[in-house]
Amino acid sequence: MxxxxxxxxxxxxxxxxxxxxxxxxxxxxxxxxxxxxxxDGTEIxxxxxxxxxxxxxAQTEAMYKSFMGGQDYSIWSMDAEDGKTYGEQxxxxxxxxxxxxxxxxxxxxxxxxxxxxxxxxxIADAAAAFMAANSEETLQxxxxxxxxxxxxxxxxxxxxxMHDPLIADVDKDVSDEEAQQSSFDYVSISTADLSxxxxxxxxxxxxxxxxxxxxxxxxxxxxxxxxxVDDSYSSVSGTFDVNEDAAKEDSDExxxxxxxxxxxxxxxxxxxxxLKDGEIGPDVIETDTSYYVVKLDKVNDExxxxxxxxxxxxxSENKLYTDTTEKWLDDADINVEKKVLKTLKVTDNHxxxxxxxxxxPTEEAAATETPExxxxxxxxxxxxxxxxxxxxxxxxTEEAAPEAETSEETDTQEVVEEAEETATESEEKxx
Length: 431
Hints:
Strand order of the largest sheet: 6-5-8-7
Largest sheet: 4 strands, antiparallel
Shape: elongated
Distance between the termini: 12 Å
Oligomer: single chain
Number of domains: 2
Order of helices and strands: EHEEEHHHHHHEHHEHHEEHEHEHHHHE
Number of helices: 17
């Protein structure tokens, strides 16, 4: 899974929401003071969960709008799982996220994590800036008070600072044998849904590519040779586990990593494991749906091996983080006021969007500017994950729109920098 820099909620709120949120057709006004849940006896006001939900909603809608080319769309009323809509799932996931943050605050001292008086002042400044930047109408829609904004920012800061201590015990000593990767190039020609004559032609094309590659030798450019046969063909680079036990483990865990041997047909892997550096597969490889021509690059690809090591470490870190936090949630005494929670709705007729600043950014702001919509965490995320699955790392902390820096935002930068963290959509899900 791709590693992605995360920012604390201080950055998320001052940089994303502080210039104002634009709301559509409103639902029934919420009472943000009502208790929506208790965690180990600590009451959670609805306003904090509302803020979490709306920030995630705005981020998701910005992402979908980008994917849809700015066109209208409907996602929240779509059926998801267990008879719920994506909107209902988003609300439930946000509540879970907030519950976990309260638990993390409880446990922070056990991990020598603290939020200092200086941090609190910066959080207070950020909360004040947020309240001043948003209209009264928007604040009523959010049903959030300034004190609740401060609490939310404090909780997010605890969460971000808890990340590294939680994964500190992960074994980062991964052996070359465990991670060793081989690299190769290949051409895959699909035969799916073709007539017999078309399949015959594809096989002839594959054989021509192979013959020309053999004639060119180990220095031959597979991609150029493939395109010389048909411009629609091209070569692809891949890697696979040298250690077959590691490859089997990847397969058992249904890994989607490009370095996993399970990503390639058994017929292809059988041939690749017989080759040495620079060698070409002796024959066209036939599978049920494709013809392959392969060329092994390196039996031991050091760069790919190092990448695999980091992937193994990252996977272990994510697992430890998830296992630990899920156990905390299971062990906690949590009571949800379902009637109160049902008043918080995410629907297609009540959209939230992030307003972007129009003034020219300062030189400093321009240097740190991020794209309007960050890359989705897992790259292979399903719509469900995109909608509700902020998993371990919440979607809302991925800044969706850059703003020109205000004095208040500048004041909070130290908190942001101290609390920066990295996460992997593989999510877990996850944020």
